[in-house]
Model the fold of this input.
Amino acid sequence: MSKYICAVCGYNELNYPQWDKHGFPTHEICNCCGFESGFDDDAKDIPESIEEYRIRWLSEGANWFSSSKTKPLNWNLAIQLKRINVDISK
Ligand SMILES: [Zn+2]
Done:
């Protein structure tokens, strides 16, 4: 089964895409940042809300969201964010 990348944090183990091919949110919740498409934002048409969520999540310490899925041992926030072209080293 293929995996999908979170538009907010770059986590690449999502089981479903956050938006379907028509652009409708699937309510997939990211285990990493907790972002839920269709709930925490209204659509990928509003990229600001994705960025706002990311900024807030990062400012709160980028805490691992899921209690059922444990954080990967080799989890690296900076590398993960680079997947979605977000550089936090600056
Ligand atoms: Zn995420």
